[in-house]
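re: ur msg from earlier - yeah i can do the zinc ion complex, just paste it... oh wait u already did. ok heres what im feeding in:
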Amino acid sequence: MEVVRALFNCPIEITSGYRNPEVNAVVGGVPDSDHALGHAADFHVDGFDDLSAAKKIRDSQLKFDQLIYEKNRCVDVSFHPRMRQQVLRQPGGPGSPIYKNLEG
Ligand SMILES: [Zn+2]
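and the outut:
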């Protein structure tokens, strides 16, 4: 996550990182969650709303696998070695459908 902190050059608050499979299930994570592999983190950036933070990461040179704007929850970034540069949004909040891109 240091690459994310360095991009913003200000503190980030990580709200969830590695989750073992049991914890991941309890918090509603999908079974194949990158959190259970230690590749993903949920976070907020000081001074940015989550959508603005997600856009700044998307528009940067940062390499990632998935970037998800989870409305009313967090920004989620995964550094799974697949590194697909996939950008997604979950506008309905936790547990709701996930769509491609940040806008729409
Ligand atoms: Zn997450």
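cool cool. The first helix runs from residue 2 to 8. ping me if u need the other ligands too
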